[in-house]
Predict the 3D structure of the following.
Amino acid sequence: MTTLTRRETLAAGFGTVLLPATLSAQPVAKPAEFKIGVTTFLSGPASVFGVPSRRACEMLAEQINAAGGIAGVPIRPIFVDEGPGTDHLVGEIRRLVQSEGVHTIFQSISSGSCLACTPLSRELNKVMLLWDCGTQRIFEEARYDYAFRTQGYGTSEVLAPLLYLLKTKPNIRTLAVVNQDYAWGRDSWELWKTAMDALKPGVRVVAEMFPRFGSTDFSTEITRLLALRPDVIYSTSWGGELVTFIRQATERRLHERSTFVLPVAEASMQILGRSMPEGHIIGTRGDHWNNHPSPANPALFNGFVNAYRQKFNEYPIYPCHHMAQAVWALKAAVEKAVAAKNGAWPSDAELAAAFRGLTFPTPTSTITLREDGQGLEDQIVGLSSFNDRFPFAVPKDMMLFPGAQVSAPVGQKSTDWLKTLTPALIEQAGRPIG
Amino acid sequence: MAEWFQDNGLLLGLALLDGLSSAGLIFLVAVGLNLVFGVLRIVNVAHGSLYAIGAYSAASIGIFLAGLGLPAWASIPTLVLSAALVGAILGPLIERFILRRIYGGEEVVQLLVTFALFMILEDVQKLIWGVQPIHHDVALRALGTIDVPFGTDFIPFTNYQLFVLPTFAIVTLVGLALFLRRTLTGRVIVAVTTDREAATAMGIDAARIFLLTFTFGAMLAALGGALLSPTAALVPGIGAQTIVLSFAVVATAGLGQIEGAALTSLMMGLGRSIAVYFAPEFEVVVPYIIMVAVLLVRPQGLFGVIETRRV
């Protein structure tokens, strides 16, 4: 058996502490291409989000590379399907880093995927941008040096429509929920219920319904809602299920008895077309409506929307905008890190440091990545309406809720913070735009 | 108890109406799966794909014909014809080139082959129809709604939901029962189901019966999907969702039992809708609770027959 002398032990200890720091200080060669591992749904029901987001990513990569790349380096996205589940995805992310040699990872749509895979950013020491998942738990339950979310999250995406509802319909007395029976459906209801109890105590929940994920028939739920006549029906459902629910509900005139509040409805508006009833509250998980009345950078905004539309014959939906935000955040952070090194290429740790506190421009506004890694994205909510410009419903009477106003402060859990809200916030929050 | 009925009787009535419609759709899919198993002795996982392709095809054909100016009344016959078309094309192809190679093989191989086929057909759907939801509801809208009295209030139901779906289920059940018992081909199918070896020994062309039965089962799956298409948005994955419930129906009914499939579909449809009204947390698990309860008491299923194991 080999034993270490005291001197060898000390040397090993110093080596353990000093060697990584020494290595990180070594100059990093500029890569021939910047590889981005992208996890998104390419199969299953959530591919309604995943496939458009992949298209947006490929389109932006083409545009960026045509303009010389990021800091002179072309980018290359490598896509991985979230569909097979989290165990598979964990292995795929390791493979992307260890075999494909990706420089950063964009993950994921599913909150479950994000919760399972974000801890890998520590193990792999690679920048991980959470480009679409909404769970509030990521940065409230752990701290990550290499992980950042380049968009808003469940708390702000639920609170903004609630504030809009209470500002515009202050006399609601009864509410029912119809959410998909999985993590987002349950979590988004908990956030809404907690905030509603604080902002308007006394609203009676007359039905809590969580149909099976992937349901194709909501006729029983609709009959019950028709009988109950709640003032408000809240649903964070998405994809085919939201389309089916709205179509079955409107056919039976449920929209004449209750007001729908649909925080993630934007992605389904093109599919619903004229089937979407007017005058119901719709959100887009951010501020990137295709009819945004005053985007911060109209040329960039219209350029992105029109290029996507021309290439794919449809308007971009919110996952496309979220993917674009991740790309623009990466561009801003790499350029910031390269500038900080006077043109030299940054290490992974230096790139991660550039993201902390980064404010990057989006076509509609700016997004700031807080010290805990969470992005502060403004939320725009409005009432479904039709105009001559779009063959589908877009919001009117829009209100903008600044990201910082509808996000839990750093260090606080959303469910704890929402309990501290007071009815005074209803008056203070948000401002009309348009 | 009487007091409970006094308070909730009206709601129970609504739940029954919803349950009948739901049961109709469940039956149409499950009965095809049950028939195929009864004759071919293959648990066909790809049945869910036939259902999904039936739905997508019906929507696409409906959209195409609507573009040509087809009147609204023709939309329901279009659903039936498109389902027949899907079954007539895919059924023989699958039976002739895939299933025929695995008859008599190990059950695990049969499962793996039909599961692989299911996965392939899922991707084929995405290649043809993409991933964005597709819907075509002319049949639903053309038939309008009916207001069902509810105390001093009324509840609008779609005529499609309240009348068309249960009617199709009843016609299929009665038609299938008459076909199997009153026609020569039907009796031959029953003979093969009951004792394949004896039927073959008596000169029945089992290969022809297998082809016929599988094609008919594929048509029924496609019909279930086609009848769903006016009410739902079609997205990738609808086949997977349906096949799980269909297996629960088949297992509970007893393998190869048509009337059993009807009764089980009714139990599951009503169970789910009653749960939505009175215990929504249980909606998802009610069909499986029914399945477990039945199988604990009758492991062969409600109408299943205990078979002697041959060695």
About this structure: The longest strand of chain A covers residues 394-401. The radius of gyration of chain A is 23 Å.
